[in-house]
Amino acid sequence: MKPVKKDWRNWLVDLLGLKPEDREALKTMLKQPGGFVTPEEVKMIEGVLEMREWKIRDIMLPFNDVVSMKITDNYQQAVDKVCEWQHSRYPVVDGSGEVVLGILLAKDLLHYTKKPDAFNLQQVMRDALSEPDSKSLDKLLEDFRSNRSHMVIVHDEYKQTVGVVTIEDLLERIVGEIEDESDEAEDRDITPHADGGATVKGTLSIEEFNQHFNSQLPANGADTIGGWLAAMMGRMPKAGDRYEKHGFIFKITAASERRIHHLDVQCPPS
After folding, report:
1. CA angle, corner 134, sides to 8 and 131, nearest 5?
2. Which residues pair with 91 in a beta bridge?
3. What sign results for the dihedral spanned by CA atoms 230, 233, 234, 237?
4. How far apart are CA 146 and CA 144, in angstroms?
5. Exposure pattern of 153-173 as b/e (b: 16+ CB <10 Å)?
6. Each residue of 39-97: pLDDT tens digit?
7. Three-state DSSP class for residue 186
8. Residues 236, 183: contact at Cβ < 8 Å?
9. What CA–CA distance (Å, rounded) separates 203 from 189?
10. 70 within 8 A of 97, measured Cβ to Cβ
11. In this structure, are strands 69-70 and 100-105 parallel, antiparallel, or unpaired?
12. Three-class SS of residue 44?
């Protein structure tokens, strides 16, 4: 008999099934000197073990920042939106923009390239999975696995839509930022400018930012400069946004609906 092959989702669910005392024992064992796993792997496993403590609301994208399709959009309008934003999935909303009716997969538009007039968004869209923002991430993982879904619509206790969460968001909570082929290929976290400013990655840590600019930017609970800006602005910044604080001028140069990729930093006058 051939062994049953498990994918990574099954493995994560098995790991999450450990009893609390076993999880703590595993953490202790992994941190022993001369262990059989790397520090990066230890961090990843710890991220998995902590998933029960995190809720969907902790990683979701607020619905105000979500790019969606309107149920009345025709084929060309849908294509134009996909070309502009280059996401693979889009919530489909009603005329009010507040009620999610389904989800459009960008690849489904390919069937209508030669017959755009036959496109009907209501017929093409797929069912949307909805979950409460209070659900823990380990339960969300089970939903992704059992429903074979990659995007979940999030509602609050009053059944109002408050955001979306994707399987990529969940994985990034464990392994850190995942860059795909559409992300800009730039190895350096900081590219200095002649005037003393710099272009920096949104994933640059607050500590590294302060070291480079000889500043004392308060973290305010954020780990990265991108997360700090999102927290200070009260939303996910968009390309072209400008923000001034502590003498610095921050200008977002590249961003998606989930994160800041790059920004220009102008230093305070000396």
Report:
1. 65
2. 103
3. negative
4. 6
5. bbbeeeeebbbbbbbebbbbb
6. 666 666 666 667 777 889 888 888 887 889 999 999 999 999 998 888 899 999 998 88
7. coil
8. no
9. 8
10. yes
11. unpaired
12. helix
3-state DSSP call for residue 242? strand
**Residue whose structure tokens are 């202790």:** 28
Taking only the tens place, the pLDDT of each residue in 204-236 is 899 999 999 999 998 888 888 998 998 899 888
Whose CA is closest to 81, among 249, 257, 269, 209?
A: 257
Measured CA to CA, the distance from residue 226 to residue 229 in angstroms comes to: 5
For residue 109, give the nearest of 67, 152, 74 by alpha carbon. Answer: 74
* Residues 265, 34: Cα–Cα separation, whole Å: 41
Q: What are the E-state strand segments in the chain?
A: 61-62, 69-70, 89-93, 100-105, 129-132, 151-155, 161-166, 190-192, 198-201, 242-245, 248-255, 260-266
- Taking a C-beta distance cutoff of 8 angstroms, is the pair 168, 192 a contact? no
Q: Tokens representing 172?
A: 């990034």
Joined tokens for residue 48 = 């998995």
